[in-house]
Amino acid sequence: MQSDYDAVILGAGINGTALARALAEQGKRVAVIEKSQIGAGASSHSSRLIHGGLRYLENFEFSLVKEALNDQHYLLQNYPKLVKLRNFYLPVYENSPRPAWMLRAGLWLYGFFSRHGQKARRVENAEFLARFGELRAEGLKAVFCYADAKTDDYALTCAIAAEAKTLGAEILEDEEIQSLTIEAEKITICLAERVLTTSLLINATGAWVDEVNTRFSLPSSYRVEKLSGIHLVIDRVLLPDPIFLQTASKRIFFIIPEKETTLIGTTERSESADVDDIKVNEEDIAYLLKESNNYLKNALKRSDIKEVFIGTRPLIKSAKDPSKMSREYKLDLHRLGKNRLLHIYGGKLTTFPSLAKKAAEMLKS
Ligand SMILES: Cc1cc2nc3c(=O)[nH]c(=O)nc-3n(C[C@H](O)[C@H](O)[C@H](O)COP(=O)(O)OP(=O)(O)OC[C@H]3O[C@@H](n4cnc5c(N)ncnc54)[C@H](O)[C@@H]3O)c2cc1C
């Protein structure tokens, strides 16, 4: 069976499905090819925050934070069942490398860019400790509370995919590409039992982007650094609200209560293996347990961990220190004869609305 499409998108993560929805909205015939299932990649292995990224302010990434907080506003308004505002607490201990004044300044700026209208505030230590009985009191100097949003990343991706399908986009799951040929007038993609032709190919394969480019000899302007991150799922609810904590080496991690479990994350590890071969590293589990136990009265044990999951971030190579690499995305458009090829590089779960809008606008003509 052979079918022609206005656009073929590789990858049904949040970005591929959101762009499918945006193009279908323009009346285009769209197919998405997913080698696994909808949302199987980073879009179901994230920290599930819909946020501007308070810590990116430290790197002066104001435009990224502002755009992400605009997207947060859009998602809170349009997906109230899936994206919810929560109180996040930021305790400052004696050994915290960022002092209270710095957090206060960062929160002020973050509040300035936020559109939900809830102001950050200082919380009395006694009030905080009464609410967070599991946390140790020694060394606590100050506590701040601010509002940010949480989601279920997998459910959100499935919701966007469902909207794309309703608008007519086809999402083909469990499809391995057998061959991809670019001729002057058209691009032909052969699957096991179907052949798709198009003049617009979009590579939205997230952390797999370079592997796909290499395999099919596609031109590209960037390369990604693969940065894995793990989360521990603890078998019970430890705290009433999410908290962000600092490590002595200036890294940040969080403890977030979910329905019946607690999420602890995340880590950052540069990976050179192919994405499908990236595995959870025991050192990362030990790191998260150790750092959490620095703050918890009752130390967590390995047996308290119900699950460990790993995701890979595709960050555009730009700095030596991966934690300083920007979370910004790039839309990389190439013309190949009469065809167009767009790669999506980088990005965050939060910024899929503006990414899809900009890409659809770029591809309108
Ligand atoms: C540990 C971690 C924590 C994070 N936390 C947050 C957070 O709290 N908030 C936030 O905003 N962002 C967060 N992110 C970032 C966010 O998860 C990603 O930016 C986002 O999910 C990327 O979506 P995507 O659609 O580009 O890629 P993906 O969701 O990875 O989708 C790519 C898809 O392409 C498919 N694919 C790969 N190769 C092929 C092929 N050859 N053919 C067809 N399909 C293929 C894959 O199976 C996959 O489904 C986090 C990321 C990680 C890893």
Report on the architecture of this protein:
- The chain is α+β, with helices and mostly antiparallel strands.
- A hairpin with a 4-residue loop joins strand 15 and strand 16.
- It is elongated, with a radius of gyration of 21 Å.
- The mean pLDDT is 95.
- The longest helix has 17 residues.
- It has eight helices and 20 strands.
- It has two domains: 149 residues, FAD/NAD(P)-binding domain (3-Layer(bba) Sandwich), CATH 3.50.50.60; 162 residues, D-Amino Acid Oxidase, Chain A, domain 2 (2-Layer Sandwich).
- Bound molecules: flavin-adenine dinucleotide.
- Flavin-adenine dinucleotide (FAD) binds next to helix 1 and strand 18.
What would you say the CATH architecture of the largest domain is? 2-Layer Sandwich
Numbering strands along the chain, what is their spatial order in the largest sheet? Answer: 8-3-2-12-20-19
- Tally of extended strands? 20
Sketch the topology as an H/E string, one letter per element.
EEHEEHEHEHEHEEEEEHEEEEEHEEEH
SSE-based structural type:
alpha+beta
Report low-confidence residues grouped into runs of 5 or more. Answer: none
Helix content: 25-40%
Q: How would a textbook summarize the main sheet?
A: 6 strands, mixed
The rounded distance between the terminal residues' Cα atoms is 29 Å
Bound molecules: flavin-adenine dinucleotide
CATH hierarchy, class of the largest domain: Alpha Beta
